[in-house]
Amino acid sequence: MIYLDHNATTPIAPEVAQAMAPYWKDRFGNPSSAHAPGRIAKQALEEARAQVAALIRADPQEVVFTSGGTESNNTVIKGVAHGLAHKGRHIITTAIEHPAVINPCMFLMSQGYEITFLPVDASAMVDPDAVRDAITPSTILVSVMHANNETGTIEPIEKIGAVAREAGVLFHTDAAQSVGKISADVSAMPVDFLSVAGHKMYAPKGVGALFVRKGVRFEPFMHGAGQEAGRRAGTENVMFAVALGRACELARRGLPVESARLARLRDRLHALLSKAIPGLVLNGHPSQRLPNTLNVSVPGVDGAELLEAVPEVCASTGAACHERSVTLSHVLAAMGVSKEVGRGAIRLTLGRQNTEADIETAGRRLIAAYNRLVSSDA
After folding, report:
1. How far apart are CA 169 and CA 153, in angstroms?
2. Which of 369, 350, 322, 355 is nearest to 4 (CA)?
3. 241-262 pLDDT per residue, tens
């Protein structure tokens, strides 16, 4: 098996599993307790918080642990909407966001909020000037993803954030796909909120984090005993926080060497496919793209059929939540990709365990399957 679906999820790194292990049994304390087991848990929680902060260059107290990227996104969008409703009820986002952003916005629309879904160009890039033009006196939040999960296109977050700051509007970026793959430095990025998803970076599913810049206020999504400095109630999942912290430490130590390695392998795979498949189309920005992500449309065949013909290569026809769907993904549709081109789209996303041999083998098998499908249709 050659796993090329790392934008859907990643395996748990061995070092991460090892870091979690003591908390399965012996280190079970509640970090809010004053006794020794509680103090041990509290220390582990704060060490993990510092590790997450170090990766994104935040202050540890700006890091809130959550159950994942979806909760982080919902926390920001609904929390700002409810906390600043007295100032305005207008939110700006884009047409290519993950459903964890789009659907909370749709929910708010049902509650009387106004949502602007900005278009993108053919490479899935958002125009900062379009953000500026969309801001009104009632705008309370701009939410634009750092990198797109389907195409890998990296958005001009610095420019968009500058526009939001100039207008005095809070700015959130969903960085679930970018953290651990490219630099996500909140000391340089003009963002007020940044979402992190553990299972996209070799930690378990069910853990994430939210960066909240000092001084920014919002209505908490979870109400209860006031953990996480009152920003996310519920007894902290120390074991998974430790896992995320270790995953962030591994990512920080591996950047940028691993990013460069993945980019080389990605480009090699693209070259192999382009040489053998006439008319292959790249979906996404040719250079401003995640180093591990290759989204291409194979002409004349259905992407799902192509992948079914190569079961040993694990990949996706788009975002994982659209797997096996015959409809054009909302991302490709927003980019103006035709249904004929879009139906042949496959997303190949690389990770740490992939080798040059994997890429050569995957390329050959995909090409062979393409030739079989084309011959059968002839």
Report:
1. 24
2. 350
3. 999 999 999 999 999 999 999 9
Q: How far is CA 194 from CA 53, 161, 173, 211, 291, in A?
A: 11, 12, 5, 5, 20
If you count DSSP H runs as helices and E runs as strands, how many of each does the chain have, helices first?
Answer: 12, 12
What is the band of 325 on the pLDDT scale with cuts at 50, 70, 90? very low
Q: Based on the number of CB atoms within 10 Å of its own CB, is 208 exposed (0-12), middle (13-18) or buried (19 or more)?
A: buried
Give the pLDDT band of residue 14 (cuts 50, 70, 90). Answer: very high
Q: Return the residue matching tokens 């949502």.
A: 115
Token pair belonging to 196: 């992190």
* Assigned CATH class of 14-254: alpha beta
Neighbours of 99 (CB within 10 A): 14
pLDDT at 318: 53
Q: Which residues contact 375 (CB under 8 A, 6 or more apart)?
A: none
* DSSP states along 313-362: EE-BSSSGGGTT--SPPHHHHHTT--HHHHTTEEEEE--TT--HHHHHHH
Half-sphere exposure of 194 (CA within 13 A, CB side): 29
Q: Where are the domains of the chain?
A: 2-9+255-377, 14-254
User: Is CATH 3.90.1150.10 correct for 2-9+255-377?
Assistant: yes
At 273-316, the pLDDT tens digits run 999 999 999 999 999 999 999 999 999 999 999 999 999 999 99
Return the H-helix or E-strand segment holding 143. Answer: strand 139-143
Look-up: residue for tokens 């159950």?
67
Taking the CA atoms of residue 242, residue 244, residue 245 and residue 250 in that order, the dihedral angle to the nearest 10 degrees is: 130
Exposed / middle / buried, residue 194 (Cβ in 10 Å: 0-12, 13-18, 19+): buried
Alpha-carbon span 378 to 374, nearest angstrom: 6
Instruction: Give catalytic residues, as residue numbers.
Output: 321
- The pLDDT tens digits of the residues spanning 348-375 come to 999 999 999 999 999 999 999 999 999 9
Give yes or no for a cis peptide into 256 (omega within 30° of 0): yes
Place of tokens 């190949």: 348
Unique residue bearing structure tokens 């259905």: 302
